[in-house]
């Protein structure tokens, strides 16, 4: 069992139940899934870029990604309906917990000029989205074999009913939120 999942089950779940005043332990929010997405607009002109992105996402997530196709044509970007324009993967269960642990404890601290994540990136339904500009912060990627630095979006989906409960859950996991300092 993953270290973070074990900690959640042993201590965090009970602490959250007390803090958030839930009657039933099943009401306590938890992680539901994590979605990793990479847009591949350059795949329109360069088909090899899509294969490279698929390889990167497979290494980062430990799971084979799916290729996203354009839903409608956009002439300004030379995109036709049905073209391959992105790659995404949805992590659940053990892989999700492993990825979340790696994200919080290894990847985010390795990010250049990292000062914390904005607590305003919650969507109103308890889900958190963040962008990473440089995929080489992941330990699976060898920076010497990179042809182009790529960005990716990560969405952490929780079972929380609101942002406050999701923030409390994230805080318990040690999610590095930015500390607002008021010099008044």
* Cα end-to-end separation: 47 Å
The sequence of SSEs as H and E is HEHEEHEEH
Helix content range: 25-40%
Architecture of the domain at 3-9 and 28-40 and 88-172, according to CATH?
2-Layer Sandwich
Top-tier CATH class of the domain at 3-9 and 28-40 and 88-172: Alpha Beta
Structural class from helices and strands? Answer: alpha+beta
Secondary structure tally, helices: 4
> Which residues form runs of ≥5 with pLDDT under 50?
none
Radius of gyration (CA) equals 18 Å
Arrangement of strands in the largest sheet: 2-3-1-5-4
Q: Approximately what portion of the residues adopt beta-strand conformation?
A: 15-25%
Which shape, going by the Cα principal axes?
globular
CATH superfamily of the domain at 3-9 and 28-40 and 88-172: Ribosomal protein L5
Let me know the largest β-sheet: 5 strands, antiparallel
Number of strands: 5
- Overall mean pLDDT: 82
CATH topology of the domain at 3-9 and 28-40 and 88-172: 50s Ribosomal Protein L5, Chain: A
